[in-house]
Amino acid sequence: MAESITMPQLGESVTEGTIIRWLVQIGDKVKQYDPLCEVTTDKVTVEVPSVTSGVITEIVVSEGDTVQVGAVICRIETAEFSPAVWKLIQEHGLDSSQLKGTGRFGRITRNDVMEFLEKRGALVEDMGSPSEQGELEEKVPVTAVRKAIARRMSQSKQEIPHAWTMIECDVTSLVQFRNEIKEQFQRTEGVALTYFPFFMKAVTEALKEFPILNSQWAGEHIILKKEINLSFAVAADRALYTPVIRNADRMDIAGLARTVHQLARKARAGSLTIEDVSGGTFTVNNTGSFGSVLSAPIINYPQAAMLTFEAIVKRPALVDGMLVEIDKVNMCLSMDHRVLDGWVCGQFLQRIRNRLESFGTGTDLYSYSV
């Protein structure tokens, strides 16, 4: 059956949107949550995801056209298989995206499944060792999400003149404090207390003092954002998503921890909404979670900067004439050099460092201002 995809509501006061670019063509197969097109309004530019899986049968709105919220922009023939075909796919543990449907609008038939199984069986019988096969490379299909990421990253690097700086921070007191309270926090809140919400809190306070970091380039002027909406990166299913914590500066550390957990879980479950990923004004990334100690992030277009927090590592240091072991973390900032210069970015990073180094025993996780 055909499913009509409509122009979504992209904000409380938004009544229309303009199709910038279609990411699919007629005949393309899509899965639920795959991006269909880029839409812009006077407030945000977002990707519209598919609400169902199936085949694109009609594109109603052309690139550059502006339509009202609720108007049909394309139609999808839903990829519903008969119960018998679906059961057959499940019994053999197949991925339906690997199957080429020969039915109407690309639907998968029983014959399609059986032919795939026969070919796979013949392939297994013929397979020898890698050296016998001579297979030295493999072609991996590029998903729609990966294509969207590639396009965004290319746009950022081509349009934004990136500059980069790094500062080191002593977080020994923070590490000790977090180790003291993490188990109690887990029992009380039901989520793990990582270092990330502490990092976010320090960033939001610094952004209030240096609002130029919370901006974007707009040609003839620079747009200073009044709200502090933190985007953060979440890796899920071989893709990268950037959900947004709105008005992050109005949250305490505990609230940030809960919100990060909730949005990360939605990202990995593939249930993020347009509202969840739109409106970000500054991006932070916890690259240290997988061991990185140094990175040069690509700015989340069209924002003016992106900050990564690297792995916390133990290093020797002289304190009051004594050699001791302290915990250090690197903060790496990529900036849009059209908007930002080294001086203000250096001041911004120093303010974050001062805040992080002040966290320790006695820090109130439930205070708006810490």
Keywords, separated by commas or semicolons:
OB fold (Dihydrolipoamide Acetyltransferase, E2P); transferase; 2-oxoacid_DH_actylTfrase; globular; 4-stranded antiparallel beta sheet; 9 helices; 7-stranded mixed beta sheet; Dihydrolipoamide Transferase; alpha+beta; Chloramphenicol Acetyltransferase; 26% strand; E3-bd_dom_sf
CATH superfamily of the largest domain: Chloramphenicol acetyltransferase-like domain
Number of β-strand runs: 19
Q: Please compute the radius of gyration using only Cα atoms.
A: 24 Å
Please report the distance between the alpha carbons of the first and last residues.
55 Å
CATH T-level topology of the largest domain: Chloramphenicol Acetyltransferase
Strand content: 25-35%
Low-confidence stretches: none
Number of domains: 3
Main pleated-sheet profile: 7 strands, mixed
Mind telling me the CATH class of the largest domain?
Alpha Beta
As a percent range, the share of helical residues equals 25-40%
Number of helices: 9
Estimate the mean pLDDT confidence: 87
* Apparent shape: globular
Find the structural class using helix and strand composition: alpha+beta
Q: What is the ordering of alpha helices and beta strands? A: EEEEEEEEHHHHEHHEEEEEEHHEEEEH
CATH architecture of the largest domain: 2-Layer Sandwich
Pfam families: 2-oxoacid_dh (PF00198), Biotin_lipoyl (PF00364), E3_binding (PF02817)
Enzyme class: transferase
Organism: Paenibacillus montaniterrae
GO molecular function, one term: acetyltransferase activity
